[in-house]
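Lab notebook, bench 4. Still working through the backlog of constructs that have no structural model yet. Next entry is a single chain of 164 residues. Request: give me the structure tokens for it.
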Amino acid sequence: MRVLTFGNELLKQKAEKIEKIDEQTKEIIKQMQEILVKDKGVGLAGPQIGYMKRIFVAHTEGDIFRVFINPSILETSHKTCKFEEGCLSVPGIYAPVVRSESIKIQAWNEKNRPFTIETGGLLARVILHEYDHLDGVIFLDRIPEGKRNKLIEKYEKTVGKRPA
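Model written out:
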């Protein structure tokens, strides 16, 4: 299993609901967690590994692994903040992104139990970033066009190919 990179068409597609949390789902979760540790990431969504289902994992510093299956964002704060983001699917590229400071989200965990959390700070940012992946949005889509084009140029020079 590998992380898909910018230009792969799957990253632009909307993920589908998980109908049943079974052993395959649990194995995918385990592999996603292993990728996060290996690549020193803080979040990873199903579409980033070609698994086109509504699932992501988060692992912020000092926090446990959190699994979000079929998540729904219930509330976002009106107050926003700008913070530099990167993405395992766009290696080497970082840029400030404006997002809500806090959120309320509902999802299911790997034990098929529903939960709701309200959070802010880094965890809220990671959740919003990964949730975007479920809808075919990457962080570059949230950056003004001029800056985005410069970042894409930088990415092309780094990787040596033109993304789709």
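Notes after review: The domain at 9-159 is CATH 3.90.45.10 (Peptide Deformylase). The helical segments are 23-39, 121-134, 145-159. Flag for follow-up if needed.
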